[in-house]
Specification:
Oligomer: heterodimer
Strand order of the largest sheet of chain A: 7-6-8-9
Shape of chain B: extended
Strand content of chain B: under 5%
Number of helices of chain A: 22
Keywords (chain A): Nucleus, Ribosome biogenesis, rRNA processing
Order of helices and strands of chain B: HHHHHHHHHHHH
Largest sheet of chain A: 4 strands, parallel
GO biological process, one term (chain A): maturation of 5.8S rRNA from tricistronic rRNA transcript (SSU-rRNA, 5.8S rRNA, LSU-rRNA)
Distance between the termini of chain A: 98 Å
Structural class of chain A: alpha/beta
Radius of gyration of chain B: 50 Å
Structural class of chain B: mainly alpha
Helix content of chain A: 40-55%
Radius of gyration of chain A: 33 Å
Number of strands of chain B: 0
Helix content of chain B: 40-55%
Number of helices of chain B: 12
Biased composition (Basic and acidic residues) (chain A): 426-436
Mean pLDDT of chain A: 83
Distance between the termini of chain B: 158 Å
Largest interface: A-B, 85 and 63 residues
Largest sheet of chain B: none
Biased composition (Acidic residues) (chain A): 447-500
Low-confidence stretches of chain A: 446-516
Mean pLDDT of chain B: 83
Pfam families (chain A): BRCT_2, Pescadillo_N
Chain lengths: 600, 433
């Protein structure tokens, strides 16, 4: 038997340091980094550092030996070596000022393809789709970069083309679900082949290159991601029967602006404008395909099919949110993002033809329903359309319905832009604005009296409760409060009327008329006719429920009592926190009210 | 008597089993073997058609001639290779074509004739080109989907023969190297694009914005606390130690002045324990050594006896042992559960992949003043590029980079000329007034 020695098995042989790997593969550090990123091989942290370092215990960058062995079979390594040789030849020729040689050598730059790696890393198409988040974010980012020494024009152009293609796919497949304007960039979420994909697009303002970044690494990522996105786009386009280098449906029509640029550039620009639909390979559309009827449903849930149908109907409605709406963008609007969103929900978009390529109709078009404006006032206004701020579009998408336009008129202080990525758990504190959104979605709030909803936040927990309370005897204070609110409402209404533009009057302002309650008579010593004692059923039921709960609590075995108590404790803690927040909100609302009154 | 000529074949009766063995069946067996081999390797050759068996080799390899030695006499000399045309060398552009100059010199009649001829030729060529182009266009119109290039990486490969179905393919095609087992495992469960904090909205609600600010504040406070701790441990402690040392030295000086040094006694030296001297008197005698050894052996025996006794009596403690085992098992189970729980969380953690430790990026936020209510006035905060870079590090894709050392600027000695100094001093005085 062979004697067992130290560091001959286990962690000591499973790991290899980066320098060792470099020597083994005979690559430079730059090439090695690039190869690792392309092949998807990541450094590891050994659990037994002392073992892996053979006793020294100094932290290093480790890789699995098996991974490095696998890397050594990569045909790309040969290309890297060729590139190294090529660079040596080129620099030599350059230094010798041998121009002929430089030209000749430059023409023979070794090129490599990454498609085999894409196939290797994503064996099935769905894997590639699932991993698209990072890819899209990087491509969208690089598409906006200015060309510089570290970022070549070619990759920027490629990224731009690929992202435009992807956006066209999202538009055609109506896959967009959520949008969010953050201070960092615009977040988008789409659902493609059942996968939710999120990506960020930077705002279109001056770009500052960060200094603490290794650009070579980022470029390598983009190299891989552009290959991935290209193949994914091809496949996605074919899933919708679209031509792959995308072709516009009305390619023949020419624009005036197009005469100023090359033909190829013009078509590219028109594609990037995203105002037109893409040409399909199939001429006849089968749009209204009905959902198949299945005779036997899920035995556990008999309404399963009905529910699914309702859901699909709802989704369909959401996907066609802006269908039939015609938008016109003013020049101060972030054109690309707004166009992308409107078009992916079925709307039509255009802008001034002097602004950019791709304008389909002009401002004077009477059929425009919404004009998007981001300035305090608009001089020339058309009566037939709404003038709104761009946030309206984002908020409509997030609340999955057309919300009333009144809050978004030019010059009006906008309601907060809520994040669609927040999912409230049961019992969490929900801010008033979000509550309003939820109610609108449920169809309880028509959206006309949104001021009310914001102001009396404290008693909008349940609308049904209010009715019940109305039957009950009310305290005098409450009544007073209500009266106050009514007064406020009427005040606000009158304000609105003053500010209102003629369009606003189109919408009938519904207002529930509350009849004032007869004042209570002073109590006298008198015999009054007896009445049947009112039995408050609701209260009784509540009492009974409470009793039952108390009994159930008593029945909890000793073992689980502690757990139960901790749960209750955490709940009460949360409730008190929510209560505090509500109180705070109340105070703020009151202060705002006072400020408003003072201002007037 | 000897028979002449060919020997007659021996007569064997074939209707008996005994006779069978003597029949020579190698030819038959060979034939059968060959046939079965052919069947195994893609059907019998005799059944196959010519096109299946042969192919026309269209590529002619001129470099080698079968079996023949290269003719030395015909071999081109290397020194003359320069005379051969090089496809990489472009033709010399003379600016004006020599042909046109020739035409110039011609007689006008001849000139006209020549030009006409050339034009005719050119026109014919052009016509040919146009007609061909038209034909192609017509063809393309009729077959619109013919020229779609296939870039499908993930196309269905079920038609192609699998391994074991086609022997030749199995043998000839080089198979891709199998990736290691953990190759498709993601290094981290952290999503590539994390959901944004609602307070990061360009127009957030008051509560959300406050939440975000609070979060950032907590991070900042923690950083400050850590820094203070380090300060306490390093700089302040150093100062303390230095002061102590100083105090001691001062004391020592005082002591030295008051008292004179005394010589250290032997006992003092012994007590210091520095290389105590080996003395002859301390050596054990033979008798003593024997005694010590005996005592040692006796103790060992006693111990062995005791342990044996204990082990024997353990039979009666089976119940307690069982109990202990159960307890131990429960503890291990608990530990395993805890480990599993930790492992679940471990997936989200950032590993230490190099010298440098990963540090999370600062939270992007805008203060209340910086927030603009409208999209037009929005001033973006944070950089997506650095955000991505950090994300890769957080997701264990690349190691955190070692801190970039700032280049130290050379110390420049400042010197002002006397004449200048007077003026600057005057200026300073003026400003003071």
């Amino acid at each position: 038997m062979k004697r067992k020695r130290k560091y001959e098995s286990g962690a000591a042989t499973a790991f290899i340091t980066r320098n060792q790997a470099l020597r083994k593969l005979q690559l430079s550090l730059k090439d090695f980094r690039q190869l690792c990123i392309l092949k998807g091989i990541y450094p590891q942290e050994p659990q037994k550092l002392k073992q892996a370092t053979k006793g020294s215990g100094i932290t290093r960058t480790f890789y699995f030996v098996k991974d490095i062995n696998y890397l050594s079979h990569e045909p790309l390594i040969v290309k890297f070596r060729q590139t190294k040789r090529f660079m040596k030849r080129l620099t030599k020729a350059v230094h010798k000022k041998n121009d002929d040689a430089v030209a000749r050598i430059k023409a023979s730059r070794p090129k490599y393809k990454l498609d085999h790696i894409v196939k290797e890393r994503y064996p099935s198409f769905i894997d590639a789709v699932r991993d698209l988040d990072d890819c899209l974010t990087m491509c969208f980012l690089f598409a906006t970069l200015p060309t510089s020494f570290s970022v070549k024009n070619r990759s920027v152009q490629l990224c731009r083309r690929l992202t435009v293609e992807f956006q066209h796919f999202v538009i055609t497949s109506q896959a967009l679900r959520k949008v969010f304007i953050s201070i960092k960039g615009i977040y988008y979420q789409a659902e493609i082949m059942g996968q939710t994909i999120t990506w960020i697009v930077p705002h279109k303002v001056g770009y500052q290159q960060p200094s603490d970044i290794d650009f070579k690494i980022m470029r390598t990522f983009v190299d891989f991601y552009t290959t991935l996105l290209g193949f994914t786009n091809f496949r996605l386009y074919h899933s919708l029967n679209l031509h792959y280098p995308p072709q516009l449906q009305l390619a023949g029509e020419k624009d005036e602006t197009e005469t100023k640029c090359l033909k190829s550039e013009a078509t590219e620009e028109r594609l990037a404008a995203m105002t037109q639909t893409l040409k399909s390979m199939v001429t006849d559309n089968i749009e209204d395909a009905e959902v198949d009827e299945f005779p036997v449903g899920n035995p556990d849930d008999p309404d399963f099919i009905e529910k699914a149908k309702l859901e699909s109907e709802k989704l369909n409605q959401f996907q066609n949110l802006f269908k039939g709406k015609k938008f016109f963008l003013n020049r101060e609007i972030p054109r690309e993002s707004v166009t992308f969103i409107i078009r992916s929900f079925g709307g039509e978009v255009s802008w001034d033809k002097s602004l950019a390529v791709g304008a389909t109709y002009q401002e004077s078009d009477e059929s425009i329903t919404h004009q998007i404006v981001d300035r305090p006032s608009v001089e020339k206004q058309f009566l037939s359309r709404y003038y709104i701020q761009p946030q309206w579009i984002f908020d409509c998408v997030n609340s999955q319905m057309l919300i009333p336009v009144e809050d978004y008129f030019p010059g009006v202080e906008l309601p907060p832009h809520l994040s669609p990525f927040v999912k409230e758990k049961e019992g969490d504190y929900v801010p008033a604005e979000r509550k309003q959104q939820i109610r609108r979605q449920q169809g309880i709030d028509s959206g006309v009296e949104e001021d009310d909803g914001l102001m009396d936040d404290d008693d909008d927990d349940d609308d049904e409760d209010e009715e019940e309370e109305a039957v009950e005897e009310e305290d005098d204070d409450e009544e007073e409060e209500e009266e106050e609110e009514e007064e406020d409402d009427s005040d606000e209404n009158s304000d609105d009327e003053e500010e209102e533009t003629p369009k606003k009057s189109k919408k009938a302002v519904k207002k529930p008329v509350k009849t004032p309650k007869p004042a209570k008579k002073p109590k006298d010593m008198a015999v009054t006719p007896g009445s049947v004692e009112k039995v408050n059923l609701n209260r009784k039921v509540q009492q009974q429920e409470k009793e039952e709960k108390r009994l159930a609590e008593m029945m909890i075995p000793k073992k689980k009592k502690r757990l139960y108590q901790t749960i209750v404790k955490s709940q009460t803690r949360r409730d008190t926190k929510i209560q505090q927040l509500k109180e705070k909100r109340k105070v703020i609302n009151r202060r705002n009210k006072l400020a408003k009154a003072g201002g007037e | 008597m000897k028979s002449t000529g060919r020997p007659k074949p021996k007569k064997i009766s074939k209707h008996k089993k005994k006779g069978w063995k003597t029949i020579d069946s190698t030819a038959l067996e060979d034939f059968l073997d060959e046939r079965s081999f052919e069947e195994r390797t893609g059907g019998t050759i005799s059944d196959k058609s010519n096109s299946e068996l042969f192919f026309i080799d269209k590529q002619v390899d001129l470099t080698t001639t079968d079996g023949e030695k290269p003719n030395r006499r015909n071999k081109k000399l290397r020194c003359f290779s320069i005379l051969e045309p090089d496809p990489r060398i472009k033709a010399v552009n003379l600016g004006k074509s020599s042909k046109s100059q020739n035409i110039k010199r011609l007689h006008p009649d001849m000139k006209k004739r020549k030009i006409d001829k050339e034009e005719k030729l050119f026109e014919a060529e052009l016509n040919k080109f146009h007609t061909r182009n038209l034909r192609q266009r017509k063809y393309r119109k009729n077959a619109p989907n013919l020229l779609v290039k296939d870039y499908d990486l993930w196309k269905d490969l079920s038609d192609t023969p699998k391994e074991g179905e086609d022997h030749i393919l199995d043998v000839t095609i080089t198979k891709p190297v199998k990736p290691p087992k953990n190759h498709y495992k993601k290094p981290s469960a952290v999503p590539a694009v994390t959901d944004p904090h609602p307070g990061m909205s360009y127009n957030p609600t008051y509560g959300d914005h406050q939440n975000l600010l609070g979060k950032a504040l907590r991070v900042e406070l923690k950083k400050k606390k850590d820094e203070e701790k380090i300060q306490k441990e390093t700089v302040l402690k150093k100062i303390e130690v230095e002061e102590k040392v100083k105090n001691k030295e001062v004391k020592k000086d005082k002591d030295e002045t008051s008292e004179e040094d005394e010589e250290m006694s032997d006992e003092d030296l012994m007590s210091t324990g520095l290389n105590p001297a080996v003395r002859r008197e301390d050596k054990k005698s033979y008798k003593q050594k024997q005694h010590d050894w005996k005592v040692k052996i006796r103790a060992r025996q006693k111990n062995a006896l005791k342990s044996r006794r204990i082990r024997e009596s353990e039979v009666y403690r089976i119940k307690t042992f069982n109990k202990e085992f159960k307890e131990k098992e429960q503890i291990t189970k608990k530990r395993m559960k805890k480990k599993q729980r930790l492992e679940k969380r471990e997936v989200f953690k950032t590993k230490r992949l190099g010298h440098a430790k990963f540090e999370d990026a600062d939270i992007d936020l805008q203060l209340g003043k910086e927030l603009s209510g409208s999209l037009r006035k929005l001033k973006p905060e944070g950089n997506i590029m650095s955000d991505r870079y950090k994300s890769y590090q957080k997701r264990n894709i690349i190691p955190a980079p070692a801190g970039i050392q700032k280049r130290k600027l050379a110390h420049v000695k400042f010197y002002e000329k006397r004449g200048h100094r007077e003026i600057s001093e005057q200026d300073a005085a003026k400003n003071k007034k």
